[in-house]
Specification:
26 strands, alpha+beta, 12 helices
């Protein structure tokens, strides 16, 4: 498929109504209509199209449409909308799930749609879409198509395997072009799996920051959730001593604050504040990390009552529900000067008063769920990420709940899957909500199928693995399932966390931890679904070839 063989459709608003201009690829450069003109640089492997207007133009959508015959053995890789979204290869006859009918009910939908692309992407059998980049694989041959600019809008790649159509769609709702506006900057690369991703990230304008190559350590969330306190944190910090030099980071997760959005330290839990704990973390030779959701505020937060004008509002004028966490939360509008000042002051406390080295920034998608101020969702997200990097300077950012394109070259490490569940078996609600919900099965899937990002653009965080017996929150895994999750994280991740009290480990558990904490020195050659439930991975380690086959539902696996 040559990139130059397309038909372009641009949907914009004229006289309050949608209007469509259609142009074939050969006529792009110099094309002119009443509202705008186009400038294009088009080749077999690169498409760059600028829209130029002398007066503001409200845009809706830009589409490049191609004829593309899909063979039965073709695999289309769909990169999910954000960190938690299902990302995998699909073949003809598969279905990329959208919202379950129950999640579309009026009381559920505002919560369910917020974290995904359900409001602007299309779903259906034999219709698959990918965000920012995609590839089509036939055996060992891979054809990658990727966007080099998400700053004007998210780029969605569609494969319609029923109609044999391939389309590249720029999501432009709310965008206003005034002067030059880049609709597309696309590239194509062909070769092996590693060759095409090497080429893509070589061409990508932003690069890996290089601040994080490998993290191994502890995060508090998956044993205690918000029920942490000074005694628990210090006890688990002492327990991490057993990992010795294999560990290099200790992260305090959600629960230190009085309310998400207010960010006051809960003095009942942490009477001495966080700074003395950070000192002890540093004394142990570890970096200190802290979880934050800088744009989120739960419904009952003081900031919601005191500054209701700081929050994003829907078309009905009400504050927009931005996710399910904490019983629901609203998102702050980073475009407002007062919000930026508030967030900057928060980071000043975290780094300069409390002394943290790293922040895990969560639920970031929320500040860009609604187009506004003449900006598309993609523009808002990219600008918000730039703002966060400005706030953090050269401190380490672990991104989470963030669309990946806007995070490229901004974050140092990034979650590439959803939260792992405290039980290996999916909870009942996984099938009836969205593609971002908590699931160990999905976390492992994403660790495998987003492996190409690791070390090329940031350090991949596949989320935690569990080795504990008991604990405050019992990890409902058998020994085989624990071993599998640890192995997947070791092979595919560069951020390796547990939430266990390592002081309680027996010698066997400690040995597994230390082995899992090591950087993976091997190479993955191939990974694919060989049935609806099973994934096969071919890799080399210590000079030997291995094949790992595991069942995503049962956790049973074998290595040959």
């Amino acid at each position: 498929m040559n990139l130059k063989d397309f038909t372009l459709k641009i949907t914009y608003i004229r006289g309050g109504k949608p209007c469509i201009e259609t142009v074939d690829g050969e006529s792009i450069d110099g094309y002119q209509c009443e509202k705008f003109s186009l400038v294009g640089r088009i080749s077999d492997d690169r498409v760059k199209i600028l829209l130029i207007s002398e007066q503001p133009v409200e845009l809706k959508l830009a589409e490049l449409i191609y004829d593309r015959y899909f063979e039965n053995n073709d695999r289309f890789y769909a990169n999910g909308f954000q960190s938690w979204t299902t990302s995998r290869e699909y073949k003809r006859g598969d279905e990329q799930r959208g919202l379950h009918p129950l999640a579309k009910l009026p009381f559920a939908k505002p919560f369910a749609v917020a974290s995904g692309d359900f409001d602007f992407a299309q779903f259906g059998k034999d219709l698959f879409h990918s965000v920012t980049y995609c590839y089509i694989r036939s055996g060992e041959k891979v054809e990658l198509l990727g966007s080099l600019n998400e700053r004007t809008g998210y780029t969605l790649f569609y494969a319609d395997m029923k109609e044999n159509v391939f389309a590249v769609v720029k999501e432009l709702e709310g965008a206003q072009a005034d002067g030059e506006y880049e609709l597309f900057d696309l590239m194509r690369a062909q070769g092996t799996y590693d060759e095409v991703f090497d080429a893509y990230f070589e061409a990508y304008p932003r690069k890996h920051t290089g601040r994080v190559e490998h993290f191994a350590g502890y995060t508090s969330w998956y044993n205690y959730y918000q029920n942490i306190n000074e005694a628990v944190i210090l006890r688990d910090l002492r327990g991490l001593k057993r990992a010795g030099e294999a560990a290099n980071i200790f992260q305090i997760d959600d629960g230190f604050e009085t309310m998400v959005g207010d960010w006051d330290i809960d003095v009942n839990k942490f009477p001495n504040g966080l700074a003395p704990i950070v000192e002890k973390i540093h004394e142990q030779g570890l970096k200190a990390g802290l979880w934050l959701a800088p744009f989120a505020a739960q419904f009952k937060a003081k900031i919601v009552k005191e500054h209701p004008d700081w929050f994003i509002r829907g078309k009905n004028g009400k504050m927009l529900i931005s996710g399910m966490a904490w019983g629901g939360f609203y998102a702050m509008d980073y475009l407002k000067t007062e919000v930026r000042e508030y967030v900057k002051a928060l980071f000043d406390r975290v780094f300069n008063e409390w002394g943290f080295d790293m922040v895990k920034l969560d639920f970031l998608y929320s500040t860009a769920i609604l187009p506004r101020a003449g900006k598309s969702r993609g523009t808002l997200m990219c600008e918000a990420m730039d703002f966060l990097r400005e706030c953090c300077g050269d401190k380490i950012i672990l991104g989470c709940g963030v669309p990946l394109g806007p995070a490229f070259g901004v974050v140092d490490a990034c979650r590439i899957g959803c939260d792992a569940e405290n039980s290996f078996k999916d909870k009942y609600y996984v099938k009836i909500t969205n593609q971002e919900v908590i699931s160990t099965r999905n976390a492992m899937n994403n660790a495998v199928f987003r492996r190409h990002l690791n070390g090329r653009i940031f350090a991949n965080d596949p989320d935690v693995f569990f080795l504990r017996n008991g604990g405050v929150k019992t990890a409902k895994y058998n020994d085989t399932q624990k071993s599998l999750l640890a192995k997947i994280n070791h092979i595919f991740g560069s951020v390796l966390f547990v939430s266990d009290d390592i002081g309680e480990y027996d010698e066997n558990q400690l040995a597994v931890l230390l082995e899992s904490y090591k950087p993976f020195k091997g190479k993955v050659m191939k990974a694919e679904y060989i049935s609806s439930d099973k994934i096969a991975i071919s890799y080399a380690e210590d000079g030997k070839a291995h094949k790992l086959v595991f069942d995503t539902f049962t956790g049973e696996y074998n290595v040959k």
